[in-house]
Amino acid sequence: MLTVRAPATSANLGSGFDVFGVALERPADVVRVERASETTITVTGVGSQYIPEDPAKNTVGAVVEELDAPAHIRIDKGVRPASGLGSSAASAAAAAVALNELYDRGLSREELVPVAAEGEALVSGEAHADNVAPALLGGFTIVTDDGVTQVDADVSLVACLPEISVSTRNARGVVPESAAMDDVVDTVGNAATLAVGMTRGDPDLVGRGMDDGIVTPERAALIDGYEDVHEAALEAGATGVTVSGAGPTLLAVCRRSDRRAVAAAMVDAFDAIGVESRAYQTAVGDGATTHR
Ligand code: HSE
Questions:
Q1: How confident is the model at residue 124 (pLDDT cuts 50, 70, 90)?
Q2: Which residues, including other chains, have CB under 8 Å from residue 34's CB and lie 6 or more apart?
Q3: Are residues 95 and 161 in the same domain?
Q4: The domain spanning residue 178 has which CATH number?
Q5: At what angle do helices 109-124 and 87-102 cross, to 10 degrees?
Q6: 129-188 tens-digit pLDDT
Q7: Which of 115, 199, 232, 245 has the fewest CB atoms within 10 Å, measured from its CB?
Q8: How far apart are the first and last CA of the chain?
Q9: Ligand 1: nearest atom to the Cα of 215
């Protein structure tokens, strides 16, 4: 029996659409595995009623196939599905680490990225590694066709999850097929600023660098109250706010000392338009961890 905790993650960070991701200190999924001749999956925790336990339809089932590692698997969800916080990636990453170890497959964390991404593909229709990479490696990750670059980063965050759901499939439908060169130039500049900010642990650079005029405005339009909550977070001290992954979570960057006020301001702003929400006061954190 082996237990692995894998963190929620936030992909895109505005200017790094399908490229940037961060691991969050919290929330997280916990996956327990035990060798078996036939795979069974049980799911408990937040939103578990929406997650299929049939291995052919579960992200973790795809990981079992990839590693040829049948097991009795228990998934305890801490990351709500369809939240924009890498819920399926957390389960897939935890299962990949656990089954790799249980069956002694000897794959490195980097080698597990495409394995866990197969699980993602089952849910979203396309294999994006921008959530599974930080869930496996921790810190801030940059995913390109040539591989993954990772750095640890000391940056405080607030992830505010409203009680509305936006499916990744719908949110991909609003992504523009092309962009104006002016917007591309702005976004490249912001993405570079953000990456430097992560390496320096500088919330001002990270916040400024999250700005994106290409994908984020389309995604924001799917989230009730986005403008109000964005504004409230900035007024409370956030240095930048964007859509986390495909939404509906909003991710704010701030100084550690402003985290509580930013979290409260975001929840209050959602509340003012009649939307319940929960704010996680968190930070860039570690990747999946094993517990025996
Ligand atoms: N980069 C992806 C998106 C993350 O925003 O659609 C969700 O898988």
A1: low
A2: 1, 2, 71, 72, 102
A3: no
A4: 3.30.70.890
A5: 130
A6: 999 999 999 999 999 999 999 999 999 999 999 999 787 778 889 999 999 999 999 999
A7: 199
A8: 7
A9: 5
The alpha carbon of residue 204 and the mean position of all alpha carbons in its chain are separated, in whole angstroms, by: 21
Question: Which pLDDT band holds residue 128 (cuts at 50, 70, 90)?
Answer: confident
Determine if ligand 1 sits within 6 Å of the CB of residue 212: no
Beta strand residue intervals within 53-155, DSSP E: 71-77, 140-144, 147-151
- Is residue 234 domain-shared with residue 132, that is, in the same domain? no
Tokens of 90: 């957390």
Domain holding 119: CATH number?
Answer: 3.30.230.10
Average pLDDT rounded to a whole number, residues 31-58: 96
Atom index in ligand 1 nearest the CA of residue 246 equals 5
For residue 29, what are the β-bridge partners? 6
Tell whether ligand 1 has an atom less than 6 A from the beta carbon of residue 64. Answer: no
Is there an atom of ligand 1 within 6 Å of 246 CB?
yes
What's the mean pLDDT when you consider all of the chain? Answer: 95
Strands 40-45 and 71-77, bridge-based pairing: parallel
Q: How high is the pLDDT of residue 146?
A: 93
Last residue of a domain, one of 151, 180, 201: 151
- Three-state DSSP at 18 gives coil
- Whose CA is closest to atom 6 on ligand 1? 246
Helix, strand or coil for residue 49? helix
pLDDT at 292: 78
Residue 289 belongs to some domain of the structure: no
pLDDT of res. 118: 87
Domain range enclosing 273:
156-283
Instruction: Work out how many domains the chain is built from and give that number.
Output: 2
The residues carrying an active-site annotation are: 120, 168
Give the C-alpha separation, 111 to 115, whole Å: 7
Shared domain for 6 and 145, answered yes or no, is: yes
